[in-house]
Design goal:
The chain has 12 helices and 9 strands. It has 267 residues and is an alpha/beta fold. The longest helix has 20 residues.
Length: 267
């Protein structure tokens, strides 16, 4: 079975959605990112999505771009990310990695898959890698038992959607909006339709990302999706804090609010 699939099965048995919390490795420092992600797990986040900081993050909005920039300026490297993944996995939550493809290609696809599996990672979310160009990754993920999550969007045709999810393992990432990441005042009206379309062609769990920032919004998305993916709102807790202690306190508070939201879906 898919390693990330266990978390979705457990949540489904509890009658709720999975909460996925995202944070760049190395933000604000390597040790600081480990502390932040561990705090998220302790506050009720089910799955941690560790992002490899990258200089050209085409899907990320200003909040994640700023956090990734801080990590890169601090000298974080892919090997540091693997150390973060190992530490967070040891805290008890499944860890999925979000990365643009260039860092993996530079590291070596097979070597990265090997080291990711060794660190305890469950697989990759790859926003700028499409299945038609993913031959090396498909082979490496099979070789090391890793999940692979490609993205679908409201603009995906039926044929493209079916082809994309056929190559997914673990879960499908449904982007709720056309645009970059970032918390928004209201959730997307297009997302429920997209989730319904995905479910017509696969039994894989569907996680919805882009735009969720409050417990109420998490509850709204949890009413129709299998997973609620939150990044910018959590990262902002650290960005806006005057010091590390208050940042972690804010992060714990929002993580708790979001965790309560996915446990009380509101159609």
């Amino acid at each position: 079975m898919s390693r990330i699939g266990v978390a979705f099965d457990k949540a489904r048995a509890d009658g709720r959605a999975v909460l996925v919390g995202c944070m760049p490795a190395g933000f604000p420092t390597v040790e600081g990112s480990i502390a932040a992600m561990t705090a998220m797990v302790e506050a009720g986040v089910d799955v941690i999505e560790v992002e490899i900081p990258y200089s050209d993050p085409v899907m990320d909005g200003p909040v994640i771009q700023k956090a990734s920039g801080i990590a890169l300026a601090g000298g974080v490297r892919t090997r540091d990310t693997l150390r973060v993944i190992e530490a967070v996995a040891a805290a008890g939550a499944p860890v999925v990695t979000m990365t643009y493809w260039n860092p993996v290609e530079r590291y070596g696809v097979d070597a990265f898959a090997r080291d990711l599996a060794s660190a305890g990672g469950t697989g990759l979310v790859t926003p700028d890698l499409i299945p038609e160009e993913a031959g090396e990754w498909l082979a490496a993920s099979d070789a090391y038992g890793l999940d692979r999550t490609f993205l679908v969007s409201p603009s995906s045709t039926d044929a493209r959607l079916a082809m994309t999810v056929e190559h997914c393992r673990g879960f499908v990432y449904a982007t709720a909006i056309m645009g970059v990441t970032g918390a928004r005042a209201r959730t997307s009206d297009a997302a429920p339709v997209l989730v319904s379309r995905v479910r017509e062609v696969t039994d894989l769990p569907v996680g919805v990302g882009l735009g969720v920032g409050t417990g109420a919004q998490a509850g709204t998305v949890a009413a129709y999706a299998d997973g609620v993916i939150v990044g910018s709102a959590l990262i902002r807790c650290l960005l806006d804090a005057p010091d590390e202690a208050s940042g972690l306190a804010a992060l714990r508070a929002l993580s708790t609010e979001l965790a309560e939201g996915v446990r009380t879906p509101t159609p």
